[in-house]
Amino acid sequence: MRKVALVGAGVTRFGVRKASYRDLVWEAGKACFDSAPAVRPRDLEGLVVGSVMPERTAFQSHISSMAAEALGITPSALSARTEHMCASGTVGIRYAYAFIAAGLADLVMVLGVEKLNQPAADEAILNMGTGVDRDWEACYGLTAPPCFALAAQKHMARYGTTEEQLALVGVKNHAHATRNPNAHFQKGATLEQVMGSRMIASPLRLFMCSPITDGAAAVILASEDRARDLTDRPVWIRGTGQALDGFTLTSLHEDYAHWPAMKRAAESAYRMAGIGPADVDLAEVHDCFAIAEIIAYEELGFCEKGEGGGFVAKGRSDYGGEVVVNPRGGLMGCGHPLGATGVAQAAEVYAQLRAEAGPRQVPDARIGLAHNNSGMGEHVVMIYGREAA
Amino acid sequence: MAYFRAVDPFPLESADQNKLHEFYEYLAADRLVTTCCGSCRRLAWPPRGFCPECLSDHFEWVDLPHEGTVHGFSIQETGLPAGFRAPVVFAIVTVGGLRIFGPVVGADPVALRVGDTVRFAPIRVADDSKGLARHLVAFAPGARPA
After folding, report:
1. Quick one: pLDDT band at residue B1, thresholds 50, 70, 90?
2. Active site (annotated) includes residue A209
3. Handedness of CA A254, A339, B10, B113 (dihedral sign)
4. Contacts of B125 in chain A (CB under 8 A)
5. What pLDDT, on the 0 to 100 scale, is given for residue B2?
6. Which of A85, A268, B8, B66 is deepest in the core (most CB within 10 A)?
7. Is residue A32 annotated as part of the catalytic site, yes or no?
8. First to last CA, chain B
9. Which backbone phi and psi does B57 adopt, to 5 degrees?
10. A138/B9 touch (CB, cutoff 8 Å), yes or no
11. Touching A: B residues 123-142, CB under 8 Å
């Protein structure tokens, strides 16, 4: 397989945006091209768009062609949309990676975009239910919060994880977001504010959950030769893994605090990259809810199973600790525009490994990990490096 | 232009829309059933159209017990989708060795505990766009009256 690198990345401002779906495509595309002056739209051979529900939010399908035309790209090797709920963006990056690694293309953009906010807020939440099994779960009004609440309850009962430890994930990620001008939330949140925010699904309170956010992000992937021509600091894809336990809640492991698919996806990525958890300098993990980040510390191997609550409380996942988790502010601080999230994670790793992350730069960052999930049973892990191997 | 809506979050349950329509017909008759593989006798939840173990697509409907125990539950207090009203007690209930998802309707959220006994109590939801009644699996607190 050929080596593949990121050679450009751009993100829009995330938030409740006064912008259409197409506006967001334009903004992310332009930001990405601006970051890679040697690449023009006509140079790209492909476009993959990660997007979950434009049929409901923008009454638009046929997304990759719409976005290609909006951006002035005329694909000659690859044009596709990836839909994999919350992990759609990273799944798109894997597609582009595989095409380039296999020699079927040399230069491909991956763009993630979602316009989730709607004139009626409860319709935006109804739309989120399309990612849940309609016949057996979504028909009761189930969306993500009660599912992750089951994991949080189990983790607390089994390992003694506390509400304060869950809240500290929110405090850390909101603090990180204050240093990210593109984040949905930029005011930070104190422990008291997080602990006092309203209950969504016990024990998860508002500031332990990611919000409904609009946004887009784009990255450009290149084959080794093209990457070295286009930039003096490519960011290499060193490893990738994906695994699935199940779709419906009743098909997952009966201990909802145990996510074996995440461990399997991480093991695949570590093996491919030839590194281990201790080598990771920064990790963009899928903190859709505080408990997800705590379980991620464990399943990604940053600490032992059950120690995730203490890991955040002791500052081991913050600047000065062992691995900086979610330096851009995570999904809780930046928001979670589904298809855009995985691509924005890649864009953050790109900036960090090029030492371009400004006030949130992780010192001497060499290895960055990105983890994206769709529910508790489906996980994707990417490992990026400053060096090719 | 009038806004026409033919689909909603509830399943289309009728025979002309769904090969598992008998499941819903049993539900309307207050019976909880699932598919049993006609070849290897494996029981599935949710019901399924073919058996991934032996690949048989011959299945029988078998009755499940009307009582189960709460394996886990979560009470959502706000942020329900359009058309749904909080609070909802979302539960995983162990029934005859299977884990089944459904709401516990009429539960006192403060009193409900993991391990509690709940009983099968199907609910009627909005009719489909052709006016046919639709039902879903649900549970109620406590054992089934003798």
Report:
1. low
2. no
3. positive
4. 139
5. 74
6. A85
7. no
8. 54
9. -110, 20
10. yes
11. 125, 136, 138
Backbone angles phi, psi at A222, to 5 degrees: -140, 155
Residue in A123, A150, A250 closest to B74 by CB = A150
Structure tokens given for A150: 């089951």
Q: Confidence band (pLDDT; 50, 70, 90) for A389?
A: confident
Q: In degrees, to the nearest 5, what angle opens at C-alpha A301 toward C-alphas A300 and A304?
A: 125
pLDDT, tens digit, for every residue of B88-139? 999 999 999 999 999 999 999 889 999 999 999 999 999 999 999 999 999 9
Closest by CA position to A219, among listed A1, A2, A14, A48: A48
Interchain proximity A126–B83, CB inside 8 Å: yes
Chain B residue numbers with beta carbons less than 8 Å from the beta carbon of A248 are 46, 101
Using alpha carbons, list the distances in angstroms from residue A191 to A134, A159, A165, A172, A317: 37, 21, 10, 9, 17
Write down the residue that tokens 């990620």 correspond to. Answer: A173
Helix, coil or strand: residue A108: strand
| Amino acid in the structure at residue B135 | H
Considering only the beta carbons, identify the residue of A147, A199, A250 that sits closest to B99.
Answer: A250
For residue B43, give the DSSP letter.
B
Residue A356, token pair as written in the block = 């371009």
Contacts of residue A202 in chain B, CB cutoff 8 Å? 74-75, 77
Residues of A with Cβ-Cβ distance to B11 under 8 angstroms: 134-135, 139
Q: How far is A316 from chain B (nearest CA, A)?
A: 30
- Pairing type for strands B59-63 and B134-136 reads unpaired
Task: Decide: A324 and A143 in contact? Cβ < 8 Å.
Answer: no
User: What is the arithmetic mean of pLDDT over A188-193?
Assistant: 98
pLDDT at site B146:
67
